[in-house]
Each structure stands twice: as C-alpha cells, then as structure tokens.
UniProtKB/TrEMBL annotation, chain B:
Pfam families: NADHdh. Its EC number is 7.1.1.-. It comes from the Bacteria. This is NADH-quinone oxidoreductase subunit H. The gene is nuoH. NDH-1 shuttles electrons from NADH, via FMN and iron-sulfur (Fe-S) centers, to quinones in the respiratory chain. The immediate electron acceptor for the enzyme in this species is believed to be ubiquinone. Couples the redox reaction to proton translocation (for every two electrons transferred, four hydrogen ions are translocated across the cytoplasmic membrane), and thus conserves the redox energy in a proton gradient. This subunit may bind ubiquinone. InterPro entries: NADH_UbQ_OxRdtase_su1/FPO, NADH_UbQ_OxRdtase_su1_CS. It is a multi-pass membrane protein.
C-alpha cells in the first residue's frame, strides 16, 4: 500500500512538473492555460494522496472549475501575437533574472531556517479522518479574526477591481428590468372610444 | 471467499465491478432518456413521437446509436486536430466521474467518500472544458460563440449552485452524500430538505438545468441564432459523446437533487404500503420525476435571451441564496434547531 502511494506520488509529481514547465514554454497561450489546468489537477491529486481531501477538491473547484475557465475565456478572446510578445525578451531578461535570483535566495533562506523537512513525517492517517471538519473548527474558532480579516481584504479587492474597470456608458440601450416588472396595464394601454361618422 | 476478499488484487477488481454495475445501467438510461424526451415532448405537442423502430419506437435509441457509430468523423481542415478530438472526451469523462460519489442506498456508492458533496461539485464543473475546447478547436465562429456563452453561463450558475449546497451542508453537518440523505430521515416528505431549504431547492434545480445547457438555458447551442453552437462541427461519435455527456449530466443533476433535497431513498410516508417498496425504487422514481420536469420545462418555455440568463444567475439567484443562508443560520440558533436537525 505504501509502495502504491509512493509510485503515485512520483507519477503525479512528474506530470505536475512537466506541465508546469510547459505552461511557460508552450507557444500557444491556450495550450499554456490548459497545461496550467493539468498542473492544478496533479497538485490536487498530491493533496489527496496526503489525505487532505478538502484542499485538493477546493483546488479543483476554485482554480480549475472557475478561475481557469475565465482565464481560457480571456485567452481565447484575445488575438495574442506571439512574435510581438517575444520582441522584448532580451530587453527584459536581466530584470527577470534579477527577480528570479531574489526569489530563489528568499526560498533558500526560508527553507534554511524553518524546520521544513525536519518535521517528523505524519503518522498513518486514521480511517474516516474528516479534515474538512477539523479545518472548519480551526478556522472558525482559533483563527476566526485572521479569517474574517482575510475575507474583508478579499471583499475590498473585489470592489476595487469592479471600481477600476467600471465604465459608465449612458449611450447604450439596456432595459431597466425593475421598471419592466413594475409596469401596470394602465400605463401602457389606453382604451379609446373611437366613434366614426355614421355611414 | 475470505481469501478472495483479502487478496491484494481484489480491491481494484471490486472497484471495477462496481463501476460497471453503475455505468452500464446509466448508459442504458441515457439511451432511453433520449427516447423518453422525444416521446414526452411529442405527446405535449400532440404528436406521437418516434413509433416506427420496434414496439412503439422502443428500439429507436439503438437505431440512433448505430447510425452515429457508422457516420464519418469529420475534422475541419483548419481545426486544431488534437484538441478537436480531445474535446468530446473531456466533456464525457467528468459526466461519468461524478457518479463515483452518488449514493444508491445507505452507504452504497462506488466510493462512499467523506467529501462527496465537494467532489461532485468540483467534478461537475469540469464538463465545461469539453465545451470551451470544442468551440475553440473547431475554429468556427458559431462554435466559438457557443463556447463563450457556455463558459460565462457555467461560472454564473456554479456560484449559485455552490451557495445552495452550503444550505444543505448547514443542516446536515456533513459532506458525505449518504449521511446527508440519512439526516433527512424521520417523518415523511415533510422532513426532507426541500421544505426548510425551499429557495435552495428551486435555485439548485434551475441552476442544474442551466449547467447542463438544457432548454430554456441552451444558448450554448441556440440553433436559431448560432446553428448548433459548440458542437456544430462535430459528427458521428464526437457528437454522440457530447450528447451522452449532456444526458448523463441531466440524470446526475436529477439524482443529486433527489439525494440533497428529496430524501434520497426514503419513502414519502413512513407507513405500511410505502415502506414495502425498496429504497432504490424510491430513489429512481424521484429521479425519474425530476427528469420528467427537465423535459416538461423544455417543452414549455421559450429560450431565454442571453442577458436575461446572466441577470437571473448573478442578480436573482446569488442574492436569494445568500439571504437564505443567513435565514438558515439564524434559525439554527433558535429553538427551531431541534426541528431542522
């Protein structure tokens, strides 16, 4: 059983790494987005192997089911000219490298000091362990305030994104549904008693 | 027998057997759902529906399947070949995968998993990739328009659907689908969740109709505006797979609505003649009724305009569900809690 899990771990990790690499090397942006979907999937599979079914399924639900659909939506709509995108490659290379080096150094610093990798491996997962409930109990009791603050920050971000992209276009003709629903017969229909001349 | 169960190769084989036991009736159900649809809509429109192949048209689905099998698979010359062929598979596979968590009796499922509700919600949302990729890979304007519509519609309705499931979660206190049904036991049909969660029941079922791209929300196909939408370039088995996925999803939404809101395998009255009928029969009867509602809706309502669909999803369903979550939350803090749980 342990062996199967190990083999599965390496299979999923290999696919994850290859697809993550293909995200940045694929020539077609639609392919990049689809490889990213594959990468998310394999990350979710790794969570499931750890017994963290809530995290794995939420990853699929949120990122694969919603975020990437919108990504694909946008990528497919845009007519992306790859030649133009590649023009600036050499010009931005030094800056990119600098950022990459800083990132790598920071990660090294974190892994050096934090006890990651020195934590004893978790024991076997007890059957019927319900980590959704465990996570919920932690989030809504112990970490209630950080959780709520994170929610408020997200809300602010949503409102900011809407406010930044909102264009008021008074010239477009759209229906005011509220007015349509609230309309009464006598506002629209006038009965006229037509009395023509007698023949 | 004991040695058999303990053998290392037995669990995967047993899983395979369970999958076959579920999928073969499901595909037969899909075949006869197409016949039922044509018959029901026929009678609603005062026609007879198919009645030539076999007794009263009973063999019509088989004739249709054979026809689709022998049709030539066409690939448009400017299409993206690989994705064009992969898209029907990507639509079909999630439609089958969701059945892994569907409970058919107390604890009886291919996989009676703890996070079943999350699983079905996550996997059911993946079918849209087949549609989007089909639309894009076809390299056809109509197909692409259909794909865009499907993507926007799915994202809009999945939120309402998720919120509706939050309500079920609050009452049942579990994500396990089998336990959700068991939490609805007690009295008769009045102890099922459709009553305390009535807005969620409606929102979930209507969102389900929208998610499966069925009339009146079938703008992704919209044959009067964009020919056949995302599958306009498909023929033969490619088309058949989209078709199978759509109908399998219809059955899935119906059975899940039954499980979540209509008490699953419990009889509507806890008295003698009703309790004699096995639970599986009740489950299938309720599912069949909801499937009939699917067809009934299709025969009754004209197709929604696209902006009306978006308005319904974002401006009507999501506020309703959020408001009712608050109502349920407050009710659970009052003495009503004893009745609701």
């Amino acid at each position: 059983m342990m062996l199967t899990t190990t083999i599965l771990f390496y299979v999923f990790s290999a696919i994850l790494l290859v697809s993550a690499l293909l995200v940045i090397t694929a020539r077609n942006p639609v392919y990049s987005a689809l490889y990213l979907v594959l990468a998310f999937f394999n990350a979710a599979a790794l969570f499931l192997l750890l017994g963290a079914e809530f995290l794995g399924l939420i990853l699929i639900l949120v990122y694969v089911g919603a975020v990437m659909v919108l990504f694909l939506f946008v990528v497919m709509m845009l007519d992306i000219n790859l030649e133009r995108l590649k023009e600036g490659f050499l010009r931005y290379l030094p800056l990119g490298l600098a950022i990459a080096i800083v990132g790598v150094l920071e990660m090294v610093a974190v892994f050096w000091t934090a006890p990651i990798g020195r934590v004893p491996a978790p024991g076997p997962i007890p059957a019927n362990a319900d980590n959704t409930r465990a996570l919920g109990e932690l989030l809504y009791t112990h970490y209630l305030y950080p959780f709520e603050i994170a929610a408020v920050i997200l809300l602010v971000a949503i409102i900011a994104a809407i406010a930044l992209t909102l264009r008021r276009r008074p010239d477009t003709k759209s229906q005011a549904v509220g007015k349509q629903v609230a309309v009464a017969v006598r506002e629209r229909l006038r009965m006229v008693d037509l009395r023509g001349p007698k023949p | 027998m004991h040695d058999l169960v303990n053998a290392a190769w037995w669990p995967p084989v047993w899983a395979l057997i369970k999958i076959i036991i579920v999928l073969i009736p499901l595909l037969l159900g899909v075949a006869y759902l197409t016949l039922a649809e044509r018959k029901v809509i026929g009678y609603i429109q005062i026609r007879l529906g198919p009645n030539r192949v076999g007794f009263r048209g009973m063999l019509q689905p088989i004739a249709d399947a054979l026809k689709l099998l022998f049709k030539e698979v066409l690939i448009p010359s400017t299409a993206n070949r690989f994705l064009f062929l992969a898209a029907p598979v990507l639509a079909f596979v999630p439609a089958m995968l969701v059945w892994a968590a569907v409970p058919f009796g107390p604890g009886v499922a291919i996989s009676n998993m703890n996070a079943g509700l999350l699983y079905v919600l996550a996997i059911a949302g993946l079918g849209v990739y087949g549609i989007i990729i089909a639309g894009w890979a076809s390299n056809s304007k109509y197909a692409f328009l259909g794909a865009m519509r499907a993507a926007a519609q799915l994202v809009a309705y999945e939120i309402a659907m998720g919120f509706a499931l939050v309500g079920v979660l609050m009452l049942a206190q579990t994500l396990n689908l089998s336990k959700i049904v068991e939490a609805q036991a007690g009295g008769g049909f009045w102890s099922w969740y459709w009553l305390p969660l009535f807005p969620f029941f409606l929102v979930y079922f209507i969102s389900g109709v929208a998610e499966t791209n069925r009339a009146p929300f079938d703008v992704a196909e919209g044959e009067s505006e964009i020919v056949a939408g995302f599958h306009v370039e498909y023929s033969g088995m490619g088309f058949a797979l989209f078709f199978l996925a759509e109908y399998a999803n219809m059955i899935f939404i119906s059975i899940l609505t039954t499980v979540l809101f209509l008490g699953g395998w419990y009889p509507p009255f806890n008295v003698a003649p009703f309790t004699w009928v096995p639970g599986l029969i009740w489950l299938l009867l309720k599912t069949a009724f909801l499937l009939y509602v699917f067809l009934w809706i299709r025969a009754t309502f004209p197709r929604y305009r696209y902006d009306q669909i978006m308005r319904l999803g974002w401006k009507v369903f999501i506020p309703i569900t959020i408001a009712w979550i608050v109502v349920v939350g407050i009710a659970l803090e009052t003495p009503l809690r004893a009745i609701l749980r």
